[in-house]
Amino acid sequence: MVRVKFVATNKNDSSTPGTSQLKLISKKPLPPKGAYKYWYDEHYKENFQHAQMIRKTKDNWDAYFAKRCQHLYERLKPEEKAKYKKLAEDDMARFLKEHAAFQKEQEQKEQDITNTEKNE
């Protein structure tokens, strides 16, 4: 077995953490204090929730996706664009049918639950 010793030119530059660093890493982060706590509560908390909400909204996702795929869409020929548009429309129609069926099932389950509660 060959042993390799890691030599760093600068102690802070070493990519392998020492034991003291490992102890620091393993500790749970403390709650923020003082001015930093004020900044965290005022800005970061609500902005973080806002960012999560934005990620969840479909419109922003569609806009992001359109921006990312714009260069690919521009390369397509007109007949390819028409083909993909037709595929997308078919896919949307299928999704709407499935969604309507799913909603009917949910309503049926709710009615069954209310009927059993009334009978009891």
UniProtKB/TrEMBL annotation:
Query: What are the protein's GO molecular function terms?
Result: DNA binding
Residues of the DNA-binding region: 29-103
Q: Which domain of life is it from?
A: Eukaryota
Quick check: keyword DNA-binding in the entry? yes
Q: What keywords were assigned to this record? A: DNA-binding, Nucleus
List each copy of the HMG box domain by range: 29-103
This protein's GO CC annotations: nucleus
Which InterPro entries does this UniProt record tie to the protein? Answer: HMG_box_dom (IPR009071), HMG_box_dom_sf (IPR036910)
Q: Does Methyltransferase show up as a keyword for this record? A: no
> Which protein is depicted?
HMG box domain-containing protein
Provenance organism: Acrobeloides nanus
